[in-house]
Amino acid sequence: MAEQESATTPMSKADSVENMTSINLDTATAVQSQASTEEKKMDYDNEAQKLEDKALVFLIKQSRPVMIPDFAKWFDINKIHEIEKKSLPEFFNETSRFKTEKAYKDTRNFIINTYRLSPFEYLTMTSVRRNIAMDISSIYKIFKFVEKWGLINYRIDPRSKSSIMGPSFTGHFKVLLDTPDGLKPHVPMASEVSKKRTRDDIEYLDSLTNNNLAIRKNIYDELQDFNSFKSADKSSTQIHRTFICHVCSNDSIDVYYHNLRLREANLCVNCYEINHFTDNFNKEDYVKLDINAQPDTNWSDQEVVLLLEGLEMYENDWDKIIKHIANNKTIEQCIEKYISLPIDDKDLKEFVRRMKAKQIAQNEKLDTKKTPLDDEKLRLITKTINSLKLSLEKNIDEKSARDDEKTNELIKESQPVIEELKNTALSKIDTEFKKLYELERKLKMSLDSYTKEHENLTNDRMMLSKQILSINKELSNSNVEKKIILTSSSSNGIQIKLLNKQNEINENKQKLEKLKATEIESISHSDIKKYAVVSL
């Protein structure tokens, strides 16, 4: 048993040694693999940088200057400014996985670099949209933001901007209007067909079979049509109308043909001669009309006599006067003719003489009717007027005296109030002055204390400097190269430092050089003084 145990122990030791060596090998391989991965990472970055450097050789060289406005100097193509984040927040709040900071930067740089390839040509939104894989609204927002700040399309020649080109309007195309297929007349079917038809039935059926339906009815033409086709016994106040051809839509016509069966249908001369009629119409249905035709303004002697007879018979009833003339005359023509007729001056003179005689007779009647009673009435009226005037003046004087008394009483009542207000204002001013005096006294006390402390400090410093001088003498006597110096500063106050003699000599030299330089500059900048000659 002992032999077996002694045999097993060396075996276990060998196994343990092998295990330790295997663990050490594993750790070594792991360390080597980590080092190799790090070397690979470093190599990858270096390779990427090398590729970028190689790509720079093949880039297009800048041939034209790129200008941006002064207010856009904050822009840096390698960074994103706070102005961009505030203007387009949807790309920086991480709400959408498609709208990220990287996507915004790539799109912005692409737009700017595309423009900078040819900075004198206008960059359009369409050309940008065709080359970027992003939603149109995001591209539009970035494009407008960059264009607003002048990073693209700045100082562009307006002739280089794209525009919709097309032929100009000439107006020589003629359009024919036709009734749509859907708008057809509805003709009701008769329930019973009679063998015999009267004249009334035929006229009714003719009215139903009107195939010339208007697409749109203009209700505002009713009054104009009425005025243009009215009878002679009405007023002729014409409204200016423009007639449009129903076929070729020509509106510049003076002579036209009017349809007697359909009021809205008018034809121009060309369409009438070429026989461009609508359904179921022919030349007999049209009548020729002239827009510039004027009514007959010539008056015969018989018409003038009839006008005067009508005026005597009917006075102001012009409708009956026109009927009495029995001719194609309007109210305006009749009035104009009546005004232009000469009037005999003798009749006017006789009428004026009669009116003057009547006026004189009325005045004489009034004078003869006066009596002594009328004189008494006039006296009484004047007396009453005078008495009323005196009473009114007295009342006015009394009222003015009362008003003066009231104003005096009010002034007396208000005087003590004014005195109180004045006293309160003066008391406030006194209190303010007292406060100022107190502040002045405190200020003087603080100034006195400050001056005393300042004197104490100066005395202490003098004593300290004397002690330092005595110490420096003792040090020099004992052949010590170091020296004690007092330094003062606003932040640290007064301090004591030890310095070597060599350092002190160097500092003194530097100070002397600075003083010399300042003196030379002051002399060079100073004006040359001119001295007057003084005779002894």
TrEMBL record:
<keyword id="KW-0805">Transcription regulation</keyword>
<dbReference type="GO" id="GO:0003677">
    <property type="term" value="F:DNA binding"/>
</dbReference>
<dbReference type="Pfam" id="PF00569">
    <property type="entry name" value="ZZ"/>
</dbReference>
<keyword id="KW-0863">Zinc-finger</keyword>
<dbReference type="InterPro" id="IPR009057">
    <property type="entry name" value="Homeodomain-like_sf"/>
</dbReference>
<dbReference type="GO" id="GO:0016514">
    <property type="term" value="C:SWI/SNF complex"/>
</dbReference>
<feature type="domain" description="SANT">
    <location>
        <begin position="294"/>
        <end position="346"/>
    </location>
</feature>
<feature type="domain" description="Myb-like">
    <location>
        <begin position="298"/>
        <end position="342"/>
    </location>
</feature>
<keyword id="KW-0175">Coiled coil</keyword>
<keyword id="KW-0804">Transcription</keyword>
<dbReference type="Pfam" id="PF04433">
    <property type="entry name" value="SWIRM"/>
</dbReference>
<dbReference type="GO" id="GO:0006368">
    <property type="term" value="P:transcription elongation by RNA polymerase II"/>
</dbReference>
<feature type="compositionally biased region" description="Polar residues">
    <location>
        <begin position="18"/>
        <end position="36"/>
    </location>
</feature>
<dbReference type="InterPro" id="IPR036388">
    <property type="entry name" value="WH-like_DNA-bd_sf"/>
</dbReference>
<dbReference type="InterPro" id="IPR007526">
    <property type="entry name" value="SWIRM"/>
</dbReference>
<keyword id="KW-0479">Metal-binding</keyword>
<feature type="domain" description="SWIRM">
    <location>
        <begin position="66"/>
        <end position="163"/>
    </location>
</feature>
<protein>
    <recommendedName>
        <fullName>SWIRM domain-containing protein</fullName>
    </recommendedName>
</protein>
<dbReference type="GO" id="GO:0006303">
    <property type="term" value="P:double-strand break repair via nonhomologous end joining"/>
</dbReference>
<dbReference type="GO" id="GO:0045893">
    <property type="term" value="P:positive regulation of DNA-templated transcription"/>
</dbReference>
<dbReference type="GO" id="GO:0008270">
    <property type="term" value="F:zinc ion binding"/>
</dbReference>
<dbReference type="Pfam" id="PF00249">
    <property type="entry name" value="Myb_DNA-binding"/>
</dbReference>
<feature type="compositionally biased region" description="Polar residues">
    <location>
        <begin position="1"/>
        <end position="11"/>
    </location>
</feature>
<feature type="region of interest" description="Disordered">
    <location>
        <begin position="1"/>
        <end position="41"/>
    </location>
</feature>
<dbReference type="GO" id="GO:0006337">
    <property type="term" value="P:nucleosome disassembly"/>
</dbReference>
<feature type="coiled-coil region">
    <location>
        <begin position="440"/>
        <end position="467"/>
    </location>
</feature>
<keyword id="KW-0862">Zinc</keyword>
<dbReference type="GO" id="GO:0042393">
    <property type="term" value="F:histone binding"/>
</dbReference>
<keyword id="KW-0539">Nucleus</keyword>
<dbReference type="InterPro" id="IPR017884">
    <property type="entry name" value="SANT_dom"/>
</dbReference>
<dbReference type="GO" id="GO:0016586">
    <property type="term" value="C:RSC-type complex"/>
</dbReference>
<keyword id="KW-0238">DNA-binding</keyword>
<dbReference type="InterPro" id="IPR000433">
    <property type="entry name" value="Znf_ZZ"/>
</dbReference>
<dbReference type="InterPro" id="IPR001005">
    <property type="entry name" value="SANT/Myb"/>
</dbReference>
